[in-house]
Specification:
The protein has 364 residues and is of the alpha+beta class. 37% of the residues lie in helices and 20% in strands. It has eight helices and eleven strands. The strands form three sheets. Strands 1-2-8-11-10-9-7 form a seven-stranded mixed β-barrel. A two-stranded antiparallel sheet has the order 3-4. A hairpin with a 2-residue loop joins strand 9 and strand 10. Helix 3 runs parallel beside helix 5 and helix 5 packs antiparallel against helix 6.
């Protein structure tokens, strides 16, 4: 690594000569501006406005523009003699617990290396003191023309420093949180906890920049005169009708991705097919322009009651058929009885005129 700054750490009356080196690097792919008609490079030229000519880098310096437009020249010598104790010193001002530092304040990271053999002893002393106290050091230092705030901590056997934003450079999150009242149920929190536990942890060293890799493939294909690879079709997204159902499906999918298919399948059977969003028994939602979470009313039936129909679904059809047969069998005797009654009435009606005729004859 190449040092970008030389100075010393001021630790009370102890001074530790150090070298500052960048601890991070960016692997982004940069592009050049070209003329689309012929592919020629588009370059920016540095031109002096007074002389109307291009100037070299050696002729360029710094200057501060005042409100009236006049320029005050500032040289590197002026910056080197700033009336600040932190011009060439990382001045430690306090030691605080690490959780006192808001991650929003963190900027660039640097490694601090001991400069020479005499600096090894005080450097090691500060490193071990930070380790044993489980605290971080807050310091001030000047870099690239301005004073900055820094945090010193131990990484392996090295002292690292994170540049920090000043507290007044952090914006207050006003108007960012949802401005509507939202009630989160305990069941939803339980499922969210289960999803977090199922996803578990990840080794950050296994993560990589897939966008950069895909971009490198496109560049290599075009350089070889080949057709760039096509974008894979995105997986079809399910239509989520219920937040609970979405969480349940997420837990099952996470378990399947980790090889817990048996447990996930058991959960699917317990939930039943009716819990899956987008199923035939549920109405499809209208397409919406943005994502929205709908809080559905509580289900009246208990979980056990919901599981029972799902498990005995095949038996329901047989039960219905059996019930239908029984109903038909019961209805037939009723029809026979009613038919017998009507037949009896008809026969009675036919017999009545005969009786009346016999009575008349006797009277006569």
């Amino acid at each position: 690594m190449r040092s970008i700054w030389n100075g010393a750490i001021s630790f009370g009356l102890v001074s530790i000569p150090i070298k500052l080196m960048n601890a991070t690097e960016h692997h982004t792919i940069s592009f050049r501006q070209i003329h689309t008609e012929d592919g020629g490079r588009i370059r920016y030229r540095k031109v002096c406005e007074l002389e109307d000519r291009e100037v070299s880098q050696g002729e360029i310096g710094k200057g501060y523009e005042e409100s009236d437009g006049s320029i005050v020249p500032i040289t590197d010598e002026d910056l080197a003699h700033l009336p600040l104790p932190t011009a060439r010193t990382i001045d430690i001002v306090a030691f605080v617990p690490a959780d006192r530092i808001d991650p929003l304040q963190m900027e660039s990271a640097y490694y601090l290396a001991a400069s020479g053999a005499p600096a090894a002893k005080p450097y090691t002393l500060l490193r071990e003191a930070l380790k044993r106290s489980k605290r971080v050091a807050i310091a001030k230092f000047a870099l690239r023309g301005r004073e900055r705030l820094g945090m010193l901590r131990v990484v392996d056997d090295v002292i690292a420093m994170h540049g920090l934003l000043w507290p007044d450079e952090i914006r207050a999150p006003q108007g960012v949180a949802p401005d509507v009242d939202v009630t989160v149920r305990d069941q939803e929190l339980d499922l969210a906890d289960a999803l977090m536990d199922t996803l578990g942890e990840v080794d950050l060293s296994d993560l990589h920049d897939e966008y950069r890799e895909a971009l490198e493939e496109v560049i290599a294909a075009k350089a070889a005169g080949e057709t760039p690879p096509e974008t894979p079709e995105p997986a079809p997204g399910g239509k989520v009708l219920d937040l609970m159902a979405a969480l349940e499906k997420s837990v099952r999918a996470a378990k399947q991705s980790r090889g817990e298919e048996g447990e996930a399948a058991g959960t699917a059977e317990e939930e039943g097919e009716e819990a899956a969003p987008g199923s035939a028994s549920e109405p499809e939602p209208e397409p919406e322009s943005g994502a929205e979470v709908r809080h559905l009313p509580r289900r009246k039936t208990s979980r056990a009651a919901e599981e029972k129909p799902a498990r005995s679904a095949p038996k329901k059809s047989t039960a219905k058929k059996t019930t239908a047969k029984k109903t038909t069998a019961k209805s037939e005797p009723k029809k026979t009885a009613s038919t017998a009654k009507s037949t009896a009435k008809k026969s009675t009606a036919k017999k009545t005129p005969a009786k009346k005729t016999a009575a008349r004859k006797r009277t006569a």
